[in-house]
Amino acid sequence: MSEAMEKHVVLLRGINVGGNRKVPMADLRDACRTAGFDDVETYIQSGNIVFTAGNAADAEAAIESIIERLCGFKVEAIARSAKQWAAYAKAPPFADPDDRGNIIHLGLSKRPPADGIADTLEARGKHGEKVVVRGDAIWIDFAEGVRDTKITPAAVDKAAGSTVTMRNWRTVLKIAEMLAG
């Protein structure tokens, strides 16, 4: 029995933001198409890939493998279905997200976030950061922005118990638009 095809997003952790972990998006799109994914699109250079495939878990593993072959290094990928993403985009836990699109972030982890992550991260914050966990979504309002926060990617990973990648509210909305299109 063949698997139903649906749209997914895969978020890549820590690429094209400095250092030597460069992943050319045009090459990645081509490699995804060659691997059998349909409707492949990317959004900005920080690793957001939208495509049609069978299921999120298989897509996540396939993208990790493609990048390792293409670029020669490992990148962790976190996949969600279009349905899951639509739910994130419909219900952010903070008021006026559209007015604060660069300071409200959605974090998604490789495995379900550890219990107590919100309290752990808020205790680490020094600028009034607020953290809300809803299901598999870790929402952070970086009140004064991300520049001087003590809630670093490494701290989020440690508190979550697995790799987390984050996207700001504006990116959440753009990906939702791409998945709906």
Task: Summarize the structure in words.
- By secondary structure, this protein is α+β, with helices and mostly antiparallel strands.
- It has helices at 25-34, 56-71, 82-90, 117-124, 153-160, 169-180, and strands at 6-12, 38-43, 48-53, 77-81, 104-109, 130-134, 137-141, 164-168.
- Strands 2-3-1-4 form a four-stranded antiparallel sheet, sandwiched between helices.
- A hairpin with a 2-residue loop joins strand 6 and strand 7 (137-141).
- Helix 1 crosses helix 2 and helix 3 crosses helix 6.
Helix and strand layout, with pairings?
Elements: E1 6-12, H1 25-34, E2 38-43, E3 48-53, H2 56-71, E4 77-81, H3 82-90, E5 104-109, H4 117-124, E6 130-134, E7 137-141, H5 153-160, E8 164-168, H6 169-180
Antiparallel strand pairs: 1-3, 1-4, 2-3, 5-7, 5-8, 6-7
Helix pairs in contact: 1-2, 3-6, 4-5
